Fold this protein.
Amino acid sequence: METINWHEFEKVELRAGTILEVADFPQARKPAYKVKVDFGPLGIKWTSAQITKHYTKEQLPGRQVMGVINFPEKQIANFMSQFLLTGFADENGDIILASIEKTVPNGSKLI
């Protein structure tokens, strides 16, 4: 495993946001949703997330999540993903969202 120093870690904009909307993404190569997240003063951003195995569209709005918001936008099929939603792979490789234990202000940075 490669190590990084504190200064390198501080460059990662890992921020809290609240899911506002979830839509199907049939054009994605692997099953995925389009997810709209409010990062407070940092704006509202969209991403594509392969989280369909553990979550329905109806379960996600209102949930606070963590996203890396300073990656460049990435085109996925006909959609521009604006941030990386974080999570962990289970024993089958399916993604479980990283969670925030108690509500924090949208836009809060992980420190």
Q: What stands out?
A: Residues 12-97 form a domain with the OB fold (Dihydrolipoamide Acetyltransferase, E2P) fold (CATH 2.40.50.140). The first helix runs from residue 6 to 10.
